[in-house]
Amino acid sequence: MTMAIQEDLEFPCSLTIDLPLPTARLASAAMQALRVDKELSPLVRRSFSTISPTSHSSEETVLRTEYKATTNRMLRVAVNGFMESLGVVLGVMEELDVDVLGSDAEI
Amino acid sequence: MAEAKVTMNDVNCICYTKGPGMGAPLQSVAIAARMMSLLWKKELVGVNHCVGHIEMGREITGADNPIVLYVSGGNTQVVAYAEQRYRIFGEALDIAVGNCLDRFARTLEISNDPAPGYNIEQLAKKGKVLLDLPYAVKGMDCSFSGILASIDLLAAELKANPEQRDPLTGDVITTADLCFSLQETVYAMLVEITERAMAHVGSNQVLIVGGVGSNLRLQEMMGLMAKDRGGNVFATDERFCIDNGIMIAHAGLLAFETGFRTALNDSTCTQRFRTDEVFVQWRD
Lengths: 107, 284
What we know:
heterodimer, A: alpha+beta, TATA-Binding Protein, 3 strands, 46% helix, B: five-stranded mixed sheet, 9 helices, EC 2.3.1.234 (chain B), acyltransferase (chain B), KAE1/TsaD (chain B), transferase (chain B)
């Protein structure tokens, strides 16, 4: 408990981004792809998880990204960069997924 | 894929550029590659950009074991293969030769269409006065930032005084002469360090890869040197000289076929990735 409070004092500016996706497969893929790259700045902390959209459903179709930074400026810079990466992830899902290209058929 | 009539089932692996290069574009591609790997359930292969150029050059030209001159906007290296590594024999110590040429094109406000280097080449053909520029070969390496500073200074002087004449010949100096002088100087430097590597290794063949390799004057100068040594120059056209995706796929496939894989959590990218860091298992 104390550790969490200390961290928050060091990184007071935070933002949580929940991205709802159609399936758990997509949410899991997005998380695995995005978490490989380390956060560039030591002034920013980031963590990923997948969660269910409501307490009723068991499918974890939401990608939750939690950002914490020392200043609002650092937070803004990090999140802006993240949005670009998210754009790439969504683009691949939308245009290059197995069902879009057709695994058996030619495109 | 549609043009080649291949489907996802025909794809063996996803190859991507691990480095070297600029961080943001590298990361974008790595993310896309990882997504495809996860969604298509195909394995990843991280590829070194310089090795991509080398393997594409070898494949297209059929050159067996040449000294490789890799020259582009971002890289300038003289490379020779020995014992499963592409060893760097010499390189630019500061900026790449293509960077020098491109920035000078910006100084002269030359068009970027189709490429600044191409337009410098065309302008240089009309030049005939060889101006005095520093010649910065340092052993096996070379340096271009001082030459760029010098030629920028000459360009500024010319702009201030368009009637300037060459003290030796009395000819009026033009921007074409500046381009000519720059090319002759930097290319002579590249020929020298390439020749030094050839003498060291005992090779008489040169393969030129990278965007600057499409320059015909460089190919000509290199050819004269290689011929003197009883050898020849291999060069590709701009489809394969300039950065392209297929060179990454090709080099990646060569590695894949030896069993090389890049695990998802290792599929990072890096701005600094030395050519000799790659274990070239696919060659003897």
